[in-house]
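Lay summary. Proteins are chains of building blocks that fold into shapes, and those shapes determine what they do. In this project we predict the shape from the chain. Here is one chain we studied, written as its sequence of building blocks.
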Amino acid sequence: MTMLIQIEERIENYMLVVVSDECARAEIEALVNTGCRMEARNMAFSQGEVLRLITEFEKPFVEVDLIISATNTHRDLTLSSSF
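And here is the predicted shape, written in a compact code that computers can read:
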């Protein structure tokens, strides 16, 4: 699962995180489905691999399964994903 996670609410920079462990993916999915956005974010940072920093200008060109911002969670329904 590939995710973009917003670092801070005021800053429009995101971290590109890849979670490859199936158990961690299922746990993150369950947290997102129950509305526990911040717990899902923390789980992704602890269980995933941070690849690089993505700026606001690069964000439209990055293919991800999930975007966790400071206020919302978004899934990319155009990509085949585990959801």
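What the prediction tells us: The helical segments are 22-33, 37-47.
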